[in-house]
Amino acid sequence: MELLKKVESAIRNEQLAEAGDRIVVAVSGGPDSMALLHVLFLLSRDFRFQLIVSHVNHGFRVEESEREAETVAAYAAELGVPCEIGRFDLPAYVAETGMNSQAAAREKRYAFLFETAKRHGAGKIALAHNADDQAETMLMRIMRGTGPSGLTGIPLRRTEKNLELIRPLLRIYKSEIERHCAEYGIPVCRDSSNEQRKYFRNVVRLDVLPYLRGYNDKLPESLNRLADMMQAEDDWMDAEARKKFTEFVTVEQAEGQVECSLGANRFAGLHVALQRRLIKLILNYVFSEADLSDYARIETVRSVIVREQGESLSLDLHDRLKLLREYDRVRFVQAAPVPRPYEYLMEGPHHSLRLPEAGMELEMALIGGSETTDPSWRGRGGRDEARFDYELLHFPLSVRSRQPGDRMEPLGLKGTKKVKDMFIDEKMPPETRDRVPLVLDASGRILWIPGVRRSTHATVSETTSRVLVMKVRPIER
């Protein structure tokens, strides 16, 4: 009865389940899951649990797997608990997908658990992980390299797909579970694959842990304590990071894309532990589809943000995610497709040209006669307008995206200047520079960069008889 009391205490103290809950119990046929089923069945008298057994035959060990399925079904029938059996050809699935066999088995097993829960209207799935599993997991993660969050180990509960996964045996060691099975005569199966050292977990359980226990006989208990402590500290650190996210990060959404931005100087004032946590939160918020949380990537991002030099730079974090540093502002943006180079020929002085790549339309109009005598026509126009002496232009004119090495003779400056440097002077975000249109004459000279500068060529003077006016405006969506 010792196991029964411990599980009941865990359920009550941790609020893992409530009276009347409908629970799917994942039962493999091994001692852990069969004991879990038995204990929950005994507790259902007081808690009025409605249990459903879910078992998966992966098809790896044909005869052995079939015996396990039969054993589980028979025991469920003995207890009067409905039982769902899922049968899969995992060897064929692994061959088709190229997945790791254990990962493939887990994918199919959990999918069947969720399907079973949905069919029966269950809100919880009970899993039979125990304290020895926790110790093995902790040691595996330490050996592979993990951070504080990884040291929280297997969670006692978690929510996925609106279902709560609970582990009532997580703080109970296998020796107690085995004693319970023997005491109540519970039929159990032994998975022969648990003895195969081709699986990393088996090597840890069979070789590494026993060896290390020669130096600390209470190593499993130590690892479990570490998991408990780190879970509490990780929860606190996560809460602090979320506060900083709300305080520091600006979230914007446009056209189905999410962007997060923050100030580099404020970020640099945070403790390094919070910096790393905040970066992880941002990356997960902007692009949750991929795992971007490895230590090297986080440190690369952190170094870009806290560096003292505030020049603009771009960092590819993924083929669909960029970090953009623009002086003090740091932006995490979902990367748009790289714009294709474009080029259009202007057909004549009275012409309107649609530039979808730039998100704008270019209009031209020819002004002549008495209107050109007004001195106001000799001005430079606004940022979205430029005026040229029509007679001094070399036709045909063209409009294209920038090219490497482009230079321009800006009005008011001596000599030429790189277009790239002009974009930098304008503090133009790197991802927009390939979209900006350049207006050129027939000899390839850049006449105007809308929104940036016009050139010294074909300026309007008192002798100008005809003025070519160019204007750009956003394309109406």
How is this fold's topology laid out?
Blueprint: H1 2-13, E1 22-26, H2 31-47, E2 50-57, H3 62-79, E3 83-87, H4 90-97, H5 101-120, E4 124-126, H6 131-144, E5 157-160, E6 163-166, H7 174-184, H8 200-212, H9 219-248, E7 250-254, E8 257-263, H10 264-268, H11 272-286, H12 295-306, E9 313-318, E10 321-326, E11 329-334, E12 343-345, E13 351-355, E14 360-368, E15 385-389, E16 398-400, E17 407-408, E18 417-418, H13 419-425, E19 438-440, E20 446-449, E21 453-454, E22 466-474
Parallel strand pairs: 1-2, 1-4, 2-3, 4-6
Antiparallel strand pairs: 5-6, 7-8, 8-11, 9-10, 10-11, 12-16, 13-14, 14-22, 15-22, 16-19, 17-18, 19-20, 20-21
Helix pairs in contact: 1-2, 2-7, 4-5, 6-8, 6-9, 9-11, 11-12
What does the model show?
The protein has 477 residues and is α+β, with helices and mostly antiparallel strands. The protein has three domains: 2-231, HUPs (Rossmann fold); 249-334, Uridine Diphospho-n-acetylenolpyruvylglucosamine Reductase, domain 3, CATH 3.30.465.60; 343-474, Phenylalanyl-tRNA Synthetase, Chain B, domain 3, CATH 3.50.40. It has 13 helices and 22 strands. It has a six-stranded mixed sheet, sandwiched between helices.
